[in-house]
């Protein structure tokens, strides 16, 4: 059994292309230009880039939430690129997602109980309510939330609590892979640390592979084994965190690192010229 | 230890009754427009249901000797006819009370049917997109190009006068309003992350539409239904005003207003009271609709 | 005793929706001419409230219950509206947080930039146009004619923020309130904007109140810092002192909680519950309800 969980090659994603009537269609905007990504079992890969880099689109393409216009995606050795939505359904249990804005990603009209138990019933992980309840309480306990949360609706929870529910929902079905899309971006620094620690622990306990999308390189270093740097829909640099951060090979990575303000006095930081970058094509 | 867990489970069961329906109903009752307008409409409903027991006189009974009597406390008033009588000696109060039956029947039936048709098509257009959307949107555009008044007159001419044609006229014209609003709201909801979350979990497209999106479209829909009821009452009144609704014997507010208009100088009460009833009812539906929209929507914002 | 340029003393405020929840608790801070002071805190700490109080744009849900804000010796809270309107927008200006929404999408840049010039300085159309070109040049926008003629949506976020900065400094203000001006920007753009703000501030001799939640940003651009929690000043002082020798446990915990790309071995340390308990005890608030 291969070590590789996800193997994506040459991924291209185009938005807004249409054939149109009388052949007049639109070519659309290409957001990803031939991206390769591989994620091994149990590994946490960071996908980092600024706005417009395509990092969010790449994550969604892996989960087949956006259509891919070229390239192949293999999950656990199986080619899933052309699978129909029906065929994807049983696989979905094994690849889950945590969203940036938990307020928007939890159905405001459902109770937390419903949000957490419905997936279990869908995938046959529980057939009676008592069993589902037991599993759900266990996961709430694991993310340090009290069982009373089950009665509540999302708007009654704080931001940090909602984010934990999002995490609970993602790991509840014991997936092989979790996509974390800017999950700490809106959080205070102390809540951020708690959430990151929780993710690290869960990923180690459950042997989860994770793709961690973020614009924040410091957060990526804290939690990821490998990192993929993206710019304008292409992979600029890729490798284990240590080498990439300590000795970045490309000017863009150096530029990104240089731009991060660390909480220490450095009088020349503002005026020092940034690493030279060739103008974008 | 066992006792503690038992207390915990009993407490949890007690909490279970604070379920989601209660959560949605409580904020409604806090909104004054919902309580006041809703209360009024509830009373109106009771009046409509129990009109035969409440109305002092038979609304159809004519007594030419008692024609054109003014309302109570006016000189020359006939005791027992509190709001006066019309040309044919029929009791205005009883006719106004009975008129509520027609008004509410039309309101409920027409609004519900428009809502059902419009919502089904709106959901389909908004969720399944592409050609479903193109076809339905094109249909709505074309449909809305027909002049509504002409269409209603045509329908009544074809179907004959009566409640069924009034209701049909309203439904045939107004379903488009629901379709557009529901389509827009569905598309707005479909863009939100919780829909994508449901897709990642693996729910089917129809499950997502009915179990995830529809509950979030419901607030806007419910508010619109209430507004539509007000519109239906007015349309019925207009149609009976021009004689296209029921026969003039059966009391409708619109018919009474039409009749009263002709005798407004010597018998203003025949004109004024049904008009007040109409005004109050439509105002109530509007306020209920507005109140519902406010009370149901900011669940997220709170 | 010399008066500080800006002195906030004992400022307290409550929320009108819940009178038991103070928004600001006895906040005091000072600012000298040309000084850049950071207002730092996590969300809900009150830093935005102070900024809004300075600008006179507190929402109706917040009510000031005590203290004063002295600007060049005069209390802004006690000033009649006409005098306040004179100061705001000219002597005290704002660099807002979100360049997306701060510019009117229906008007060209030139119109928005010259509004203030024509209204406040009585400039004619051609003079204002020239001055606008100069302003854009000052913030290093390379093609000022094209930009003046453009609509906001045609420009990048960084470009829009430059325009907002130009607008803020256009009337030579004495105090600029920067409300998280780089939070919505990419990190590389953030560095450019921070550099620009520093340059403008030095060139015009303006004092700046810099609201942010990012201690890294504070380290690079602020001369002094005020750290807030739950509406109360926890610590304040010169930036090097606060960062390298923090006096309060919360300050050091906050510094330690932020991940650093150059320290991979440092674990992620959330602020310990003990620190929060200490804070709550000091401030005098009850246990946090779940």
Strand order of the largest sheet of chain A: 6-7-8-3-9-10
Question: What is Rg of chain A?
Answer: 20 Å
Give the distance, in angstroms, between the N- and C-terminal Cα atoms of chain C: 48 Å
Proportion in helices of chain A: 25-40%
Alpha-carbon distance between the termini of chain A?
41 Å
Question: Which shape of chain A, going by the Cα principal axes?
Answer: globular
* Arrangement of strands in the largest sheet of chain C: 6-7-8-3-9-10
User: H/E element string of chain C?
Assistant: EEEHEEHEHHHHHEHEHEEHHH
Number of strands of chain C: 10
- Residue ranges of chain A: pLDDT <50 for 5 or more in a row? none
Beta-strand percentage of chain A? 15-25%
Quantity of strands of chain A, as a count: 10
Strand-pairing-aware structural class of chain C: alpha/beta
Please trace the helix and strand order of chain A, writing H or E for each element: EEEHEEHEHHHHEHEHEEHH
Largest sheet of chain A: 6 strands, mixed
Mean pLDDT of chain C: 90
Number of helices of chain C: 12
Proportion of helical residues of chain C = 40-55%
Would you kindly provide a written description of the structure presented here, covering whatever features stand out?
The complex is a heterotrimer of chains A (281), B (302) and C (290). Chain A has 281 residues and is α/β, with parallel strands linked by helices. In chain A, 35% of the residues lie in helices and 23% in strands. In chain A, helix 4 packs parallel to helix 6. Mean pLDDT of chain B is 84; it is low at 1-19. Chain B is mostly helical and 302 residues long. Helices cover 75% and strands 0% of the residues of chain B. Chain B has one domain (58-299): MetI-like (MetI-like fold), CATH 1.10.3720. Chain B is elongated, with a radius of gyration of 24 Å. With 290 residues, chain C is an alpha/beta fold. Chain C has a domain at 101-172. Helices cover 40% and strands 24% of the residues of chain C. Chain C has helices spanning 47-55, 81-87, 99-102, 109-121, 125-138, 144-149, 157-169, 187-204, 215-221, 239-244, 249-257, 273-283; strands spanning 6-15, 18-31, 36-40, 62-71, 74-75, 92-95, 175-179, 207-212, 224-229, 232-238. Chain C has a six-stranded mixed sheet, with helices on both faces. In chain C, strands 2-1-4-5 form a four-stranded antiparallel sheet, covered by helices on one side. In chain C, helix 4 (109-121) packs across helix 5 (125-138) and helix 7 (157-169) packs parallel to helix 8 (187-204). The radius of gyration of chain C is 20 Å and the shape is globular. The model of chain C has no long low-confidence stretch (mean pLDDT 90). Classes of the chains: A alpha/beta (281), B mainly alpha (302), C alpha/beta (290). Chains in contact: A-B, A-C. The A-C interface holds A 50-51, 146, 148, 161, 188-194, 196-197, 200, 215-223, 241-242, 245, 255-266, 269-271, 274 and C 42-43, 157, 186-191, 194-195, 198, 213-221, 239-240, 243-244, 253-255, 257-262, 264, 268-271, 290.
């Amino acid at each position: 059994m291969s070590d590789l969980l996800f193997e994506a090659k040459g991924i291209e994603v185009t938005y807004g292309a249409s054939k149109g009537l009388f052949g007049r269609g639109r070519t659309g905007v290409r957001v990803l230009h031939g991206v390769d990504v591989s994620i091994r079992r149990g590994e946490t890969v960071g996908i980092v880039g600024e706005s417009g880099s395509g990092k969010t689109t790449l994550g969604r393409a892996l989960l087949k939430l956006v259509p891919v216009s070229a390239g192949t995606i293999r999950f656990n050795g199986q080619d899933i690129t052309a699978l129909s939505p029906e065929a994807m359904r049983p696989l979905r249990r094994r690849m889950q997602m945590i969203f940036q804005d938990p307020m928007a990603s939890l159905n405001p009209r459902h109770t937390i109980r419903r949000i957490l138990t419905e997936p279990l019933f869908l995938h046959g992980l529980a057939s009676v309510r008592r069993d589902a309840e037991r599993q759900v309480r266990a996961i709430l306990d694991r993310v340090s939330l009290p069982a009373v949360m089950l009665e509540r609706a999302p708007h009654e929870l704080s931001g940090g609590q909602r984010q934990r529910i999002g995490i609970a929902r993602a790991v509840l079905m014991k997936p092989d892979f979790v996509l974390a899309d800017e999950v700490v971006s809106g959080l205070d620094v102390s809540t951020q640390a708690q959430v990151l620690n929780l993710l690290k622990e869960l990923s180690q306990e459950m042997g989860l592979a994770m793709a961690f999308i973020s614009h924040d390189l410091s957060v990526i270093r804290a939690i990821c084994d490998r990192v993929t740097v993206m710019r304008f829909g292409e992979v600029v640099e890729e490798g284990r965190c240590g080498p990439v951060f300590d000795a970045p090979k490309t000017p863009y990575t150096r530029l990104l690192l240089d731009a991060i303000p660390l909480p220490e006095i450095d009088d020349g930081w503002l005026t020092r010229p940034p690493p030279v970058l060739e103008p974008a094509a | 230890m066992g006792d503690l867990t038992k207390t915990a489970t009993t407490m949890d069961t007690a909490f279970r009754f604070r379920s989601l329906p209660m959560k949605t109903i409580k904020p409604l009752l806090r909104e004054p427009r919902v309580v006041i307008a809703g209360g009024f409409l509830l009373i109106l409903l009771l009046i409509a249901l129990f009109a035969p027991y409440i109305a002092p006189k038979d609304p159809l009974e004519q007594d030419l000797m008692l024609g054109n009597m003014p309302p109570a406390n006016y000189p020359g008033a006939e005791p027992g006819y509190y709001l006066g009588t019309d040309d044919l000696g029929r009791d205005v109060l009883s006719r106004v009370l009975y008129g509520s039956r027609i008004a509410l029947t039309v309101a409920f039936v027409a609004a519900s049917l428009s809502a059902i048709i419009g919502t089904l098509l709106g959901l389909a257009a908004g969720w399944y997109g592409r050609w479903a959307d193109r076809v339905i949107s094109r249909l709505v555009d074309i449909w809305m190009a027909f002049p509504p008044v002409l269409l209603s007159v045509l329908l009544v001419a074809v179907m004959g006068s009566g409640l069924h044609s009034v209701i049909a006229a309203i439904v045939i014209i107004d379903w488009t309003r629901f379709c557009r609003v529901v389509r827009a709201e569905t598309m707005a909801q479909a863009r939100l992350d919780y829909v994508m979350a449901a897709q990642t979990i693996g729910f089917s497209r129809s499950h997502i539409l009915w179990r995830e999106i529809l509950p979030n479209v419901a607030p806007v829909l419910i508010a619109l239904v209430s507004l539509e009821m007000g519109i239906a009452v007015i349309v019925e009144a207009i149609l009976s005003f021009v004689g296209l609704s029921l026969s003039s014997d059966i009391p409708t507010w619109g018919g009474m207003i039409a009749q009263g208009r002709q005798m407004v100088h010597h018998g203003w009460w025949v004109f004024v009271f049904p008009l007040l009833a109409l005004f109050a009812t439509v105002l109530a539906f509007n306020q209920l609709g507005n109140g519902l929209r406010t009370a149901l929507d900011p669940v997220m914002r709170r | 005793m010399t008066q500080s340029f800006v002195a906030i003393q004992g400022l307290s405020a409550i929320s009108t929706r819940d009178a038991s929840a103070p928004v600001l608790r006895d906040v005091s801070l000072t600012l000298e001419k040309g000084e850049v002071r950071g207002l730092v805190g996590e969300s809900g700490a009150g830093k935005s409230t102070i900024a809004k109080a300075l600008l006179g744009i507190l929402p109706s849900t917040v009510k000031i219950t005590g203290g004063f804000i002295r600007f060049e010796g005069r209390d802004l809270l006690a000033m009649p509206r006409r005098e306040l309107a004179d100061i705001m927008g000219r002597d005290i200006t704002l660099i807002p947080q979100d360049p997306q929404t701060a510019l009117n999408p229906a008007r060209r840049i030139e119109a928005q930039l010259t509004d203030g010039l024509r209204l406040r300085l009585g400039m004619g159309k051609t003079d204002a146009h020239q001055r606008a070109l100069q302003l854009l040049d000052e913030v290093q926008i390379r093609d000022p004619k094209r930009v003046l003629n453009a609509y906001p949506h045609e420009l990048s976020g960084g470009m829009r923020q430059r325009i907002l900065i130009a607008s803020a400094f256009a009337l030579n203000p004495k105090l600029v309130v920067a409300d998280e001006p780089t939070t919505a920007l990419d990190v590389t753009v953030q560095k450019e904007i921070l550099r620009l703000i520093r340059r403008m501030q030095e060139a015009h001799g303006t004092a700046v109140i810099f609201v942010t939640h990012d201690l890294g940003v504070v380290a690079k651009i602020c001369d002094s810092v005020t750290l807030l929690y739950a509406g109360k000043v926890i610590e304040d002082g010169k930036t090097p002192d606060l960062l390298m020798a923090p006096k309060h446990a919360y300050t050091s915990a906050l510094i330690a909680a932020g991940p650093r790309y150059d320290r991979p071995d440092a674990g992620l340390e959330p602020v310990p519950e003990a620190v929060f308990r200490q804070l709550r005890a000091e401030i005098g608030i009850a246990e946090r309800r779940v």
